[in-house]
Known about the structure:
CATH superfamily of the largest domain: eubacterium ventriosum atcc domain
Number of domains: 4
Number of helices: 9
Order of helices and strands: HHEEEHEHEEHEEHHEHEEEEEEEEEEEH
Largest sheet: 5 strands, antiparallel
Radius of gyration: 33 Å
Distance between the termini: 57 Å
CATH topology of the largest domain: eubacterium ventriosum atcc fold
Amino acid sequence: MNTLRRRQPAGVLWATAIVCTCAAAQGEELRIRPSAIVDGESVLLSHVADLINLDPSQSETLGRIVIYPAPRPGGEIVLHVRDIRAALVEAGANLATICMVGSARCAVTRPLPPKTVSPKPLQPEPERPKAPVPSQAAPKPQPREVQVERDRQLDHTLEAAVRQFIEMRAAAVEGRIEIRFSPAGSEALAHTSPPYEFRVRSKDDRRIGLLSLEADLLRDGAMVRTVPLVAEASLVREVVVARRAINRGETIEGRALKLEARRFTNESEIGLTDPTLAIGRQSSGFVQGGQMLSSASVQDKPMVTRGQTVTIWMRQGGLVIRASGKAQGAGGLGDRIEVLREGTRRKSDLLDAVVTGPGTVSVEPTQVALGAG
């Protein structure tokens, strides 16, 4: 069943019929699949559609068109026909020669990478100790063994302990942590364990940003000294960014967004990290191209728009009255807006209503009584 044609408005259906008629002689079709699986960084046209009866070179060229960035591993995005059509137009494809049929949307998933288990190296059979020769002295340790031990000690510096402490505190925040230390503490950070033991603590609850830390240096269980340290921890995380300018009130489409890695030193500044939280919603203000989207940048599409004719439900005692009116403002589900009942023009006749559904509001009984008077 051609769900794409069935769900389109009448004007679009007429235009689609012309496109299909032009392509009917050649039988060139772009059949959109209801679902697709990708394993790369981009969703290509060949992933979401079957190219039927096209010239091989044309089919190869069209198949490489990027529709949208791929979801994260283990994630899913839904691409609509308008996303595919927009990508074809941007690539310069001639839609008059291709009939677009099939599903109206395509759910694209990206599987998690398989877990690779590295094989354990075969342990060589330990050599049996040779009987000591009385005339020979015990062999001295080789320089290579000394160097290995020295390298092993460098892995247990105070710097490594502080880094581990910061990373453990920020483990609940998704992303990659980058840490820089103040040069003033470089000498103290070089202390190793052994001979020292370290106890690291923070002076506040911050997990990223400018961190004020203290480290106790102990030797044989006894306190040697406390070292003050300053570190800057930055969080690198992918956030939702506008690919192009988005106007205020515009319904946000998937192709208008992209994921981009940004660096943060304040958790409250992290914007949206999932494009699906913005796709299909409305922009609450103008968003510049390259600007990060936050929860304040988007809003649900209003169920009632300003100037729209709405159905007003009013209750008076056990009687339910239905009337028509004009909304004086926009609002979503549960929002309060003013409506002017049909047949009235005075501002005193404005009713304070609650949006209860698409194009529907309800009015308190007290206002009905006042209006009747």
